[in-house]
Every structure is written in C-alpha cells, then in structure tokens.
Design brief:
- The protein has 151 residues and is α+β, with helices and mostly antiparallel strands.
- Helix content is 34%, strand content 27%.
- A hairpin with a 2-residue loop joins strand 3 and strand 4.
- Helix 3 crosses helix 4.
C-alpha cells in the first residue's frame, strides 16, 4: 500500500479540456458555475491557474478537489487563499481546509449531487447516493476548503 496521498493526475484529454474551460472562464464564460482558480505556487511563488467548480452548501462556499491531493491543494494549504476569476470579475478569497470527515460528509454529498456527472470517476464508485460510510471512506482522498471572499 502506498503512503503517498491520493491523487489522480489529469491525462492529455483532461488537460486540454481544463485548458479550454480555464480559457473560457478568463474570457467571461462560466460552464455551469466553473471559474478559474489562481493560487500562489508554494515553491515558484508564481500564480498557478486551474479551472474549478466552486460549490455552495449551507450558506458557505467551498472548493473540493475531486482528483485528490493535487498541486493546487498543496499550494492552497501553503498560501491560505487565492482568487476566482470569471472574465473581468476577480474575487480574492481566504481558505480554510475542512479537516473533519464528519464535517466534510454533507459537503461531499452535495458536491457529488451537483457535480457527480463530471467527477464521479475520481471517487472510486462513490456517488451522492452512496451511504454515509462509503462517502466517509472516500473523504480523506478529497480535500475540501471553505472559502471566504475578501471584501
């Protein structure tokens, strides 16, 4: 068993799709609520960009990493925030990682209900209709950040 954190790297088709979605977001076109995330690289110090699906639940906003402990997740942990962009609208935010699996459960279930058509493949068979125990078993592999917009 590997001790490295769960991460499903994007293949060539997914990278091209992400590039397209990011380019659309930069030009003001959001696909079903998508946005471009910019977060400062923890080693390079440069802003790294990736398309994300900001998710609202219980009056709060979240970013969920469907692919696992990705580079943007590692950068977010170091930076503590970033920016979401759709067109000219750039919203700076701070981020706090949701650590408790029990707290992540309703967020992940709602996320899978909203975005499952796109992300179920990264959750190893877990869907919005899965049992609490099944979602909890997957929770550690999918970091969740509560984000608060900076005024």
């Amino acid at each position: 068993m590997s001790s490295s954190p769960h991460y499903i790297k994007a293949g060539p088709v997914a990278r091209r799709f992400n590039d397209l979605v990011g380019r659309l977001a930069r030009h003001g076109v959001s696909l079903l609520g998508s946005a471009e995330l910019s977060v400062r690289g923890r080693k390079s110090g440069r802003m790294q960009r990736i398309p994300v699906n900001p998710h609202s639940h219980g009056g709060e906003q979240y970013l969920v990493s469907a692919r696992g402990h990705s580079q943007w997740v590692r950068n977010m942990r170091a930076a503590g925030g970033g920016e979401l962009r759709v067109g000219r609208r750039i919203r700076a935010f701070t981020a706090i990682e949701v650590m408790g699996d029990a707290e992540k459960l309703p967020i992940l279930r709602a996320y899978l209900k909203r975005w499952g058509w796109e992300v179920n493949q990264y959750f190893k068979g877990v869907t919005a209709k899965s049992s609490d125990d099944e979602i909890l078993a997957a929770a550690a592999d999918h970091p969740v950040f509560r984000i608060s917009m900076v005024k």
